[in-house]
Amino acid sequence: MCRHIAYLGEPVALGELLLRPPHALVRQAWAPRTQVSGVVNADGFGVGWYADGDPVPARYRRTGPIWGDLSFADLARVVRSRALLGAVRGATLPGADGEAAAAPFGSGPWLFSHNGAVPGWPGALTPLAAGLTPAELLELEARTDSALLWALVLHRLRAGQPPGDALAGTVLAAAEAAPDARLNLLLTDGDRIAATAWGNSLWCLHGRGRVAVASEPYDDDPGWREVPEQTLVTASRADVVLTPLKEFAA
């Protein structure tokens, strides 16, 4: 399993969201409060953030636990951004892909993360992978369920689907192929956030010119609201919309 967070708002130091709060991502790596499977997320971590004037985000990803990377702690103290996506990884299966398997995955302006697991990987998703082109399969950053889910989402984005539709369609197709899959997906382009709650916790904080969507609250702000199961979240700094995923079913 994993924990992840996306933020849009006024520029903030990465550490102010990922390291400093009492229940920040760094603590969720070893003491998550609402995780339904696994207790430690120490198999890698990453953060992607946007700089003014550049639509393509920077990414910093590593294979070890977030709490052991002193260089990241120093970087997070001074790097500021108006939008970011961070994640800590708890690997479902052993693998040799290293930091390539750590979220966020990215392409162009997009950053993506998956909190969950697909039982029966890789066979369960083989029918979905067959819908990708050879070039898209060769672009996979890692041999993991998360990387393939990202390829499926990106395929839909490149076909012109809005981000919410791309996530919803991917989740419904993956859930049909693997009914016990946990499919909390998180996507941002630096201006908007889309996320799904499917098999694990998801929370949203909105107001005062910012929005955060996260696996669990990073502090005790009373504004945090839990997202209902099997729901799509689409959010910007202006508003948050919750849509039952069953409304996307054919």
UniProtKB/TrEMBL annotation:
Keyword field contains Hydrolase: yes
Alphabetized PROSITE patterns for the sequence: GATASE_TYPE_2 (PS51278)
Transmembrane segments: none
Pfam families the UniProt entry points to: GATase_4
Alphabetized SUPFAM superfamilies for the sequence: N-terminal nucleophile aminohydrolases (Ntn hydrolases) (SSF56235)
EC number(s) stated in the UniProt entry for this protein: 3.5.1.118
CDD domains named among the record's database cross-references: YafJ (cd01908)
Pathway, per record: Amino-acid biosynthesis; ergothioneine biosynthesis
Catalytic activity annotation: gamma-L-glutamyl-hercynylcysteine S-oxide + H2O = S-(hercyn-2-yl)-L-cysteine S-oxide + L-glutamate
InterPro entries recorded: EgtC (IPR017808), EgtC-like (IPR026869), EgtC_Actinobacteria (IPR032889), Gamma-glu_amide_hydrolase (IPR052373), GATase_2_dom (IPR017932), Ntn_hydrolases_N (IPR029055)
This protein's UniProt keywords: Glutamine amidotransferase, Hydrolase
Residue ranges annotated for the Glutamine amidotransferase type-2 domain, each copy included: 2-250
PANTHER family: GAMMA-GLUTAMYL-HERCYNYLCYSTEINE SULFOXIDE HYDROLASE, GLUTAMINE AMIDOTRANSFERASE DUG3-RELATED
Reported function: Catalyzes the hydrolysis of the gamma-glutamyl amide bond of hercynyl-gamma-L-glutamyl-L-cysteine sulfoxide to produce hercynylcysteine sulfoxide, a step in the biosynthesis pathway of ergothioneine.
Name of this chain's protein: Gamma-glutamyl-hercynylcysteine sulfoxide hydrolase
Natural source organism: Streptomyces roseolus
Gene (UniProt): egtC
